[in-house]
Sequence to fold (64 residues):
Amino acid sequence: QKHVAVLERAGLVTKQRYGRRKVVRTNVLGLAVARRLLDRYEELWRGRFDRMTDLIADTKETDE
Fold:
């Protein structure tokens, strides 16, 4: 239940009660927004790791 509450606060799911039943539905728009944000972070971190790899390679060449 706590996980669903976190997803609900983030706008990724909605929760409705039907009698005793609780139905959780995906918010497709919210997931699309989250996906775009995560894609941007992935691009950022890939660039940072690429630069770090280049720096390490340059350092090794200098040491040789």
